[in-house]
Each structure stands twice: as C-alpha cells, then as structure tokens.
Amino acid sequence: MAVQRTSFEKLQRDRAKKAKAAAKREKRLDKTEVPDEESTEIDLGEEGETLTAAELLVQIERIHKQFDDGDLTFEDFEELKTDLLARLPID
After folding, report:
1. How far is 57 from 55, CA to CA, in rounded Å?
2. Inter-CA distances, 90 with 32, 64, 84, 86, Å
C-alpha cells in the first residue's frame, strides 16, 4: 500500500510556523542587542525623598513593563516592586 503524501495545506502551515518562529527570534534578538536606554532607567528617588503616590504608581508600572519585556530578572523585579510598594502611602 502506498504512503499518503503530505498535503499542500500542511506544508503551508509548517512554513508559516517556521516564519513566525524566525520573526519572533529576530525580534527577541533585536531587543537584547539594543536596549532602550530611556525605558531601562528607574528613578526610585533618594532614600529620604518621598515620592507622591502617582509617581510611585508610574514607577511600578514601568518596572512591570520592563519585566514583561524581559529587561528585568524576576529577583530584580520583586526587589524593586517591594521597595516601591513599601513607600506607597496608605490612607
């Protein structure tokens, strides 16, 4: 009995998967080679300086975005987040 050949649609799906994976890989490599200098800055202020609640929330949002983008490790993210949340005034 003859073996059924791969359909054209399956070949197209496989090619599309490979192209998508290559595009993802390129995007990931581009991020690691040229980090955005502006987005990697996190201004936590001085230890004695008090930031407003809005400024702290903006900083927390920034570190979340950096963590999602892969610019921060989980340990650094948790450390920064804990520090910022501890400084957040609770009324």
Report:
1. 5
2. 37, 21, 12, 10
User: How high is the pLDDT of residue 40?
Assistant: 45
Q: Does the reported pTM lie above 0.85?
A: no
* Two structure tokens written together for 46: 């001085």
Q: Is the pLDDT of residue 82 over 60?
A: yes
Rg (CA), the chain: 22
* Domain positions in the chain: 8-34+45-87
The Cα diameter of the chain in Å comes to 81
**How far apart (Å, rounded) are the C-alpha atoms in residues 77 and 67?**
6
Alpha-carbon distance of 91 to 76, in angstroms, equals 28
88 touches 53 (CB < 8 A) = yes
Tokens 């610019």 found at: 71
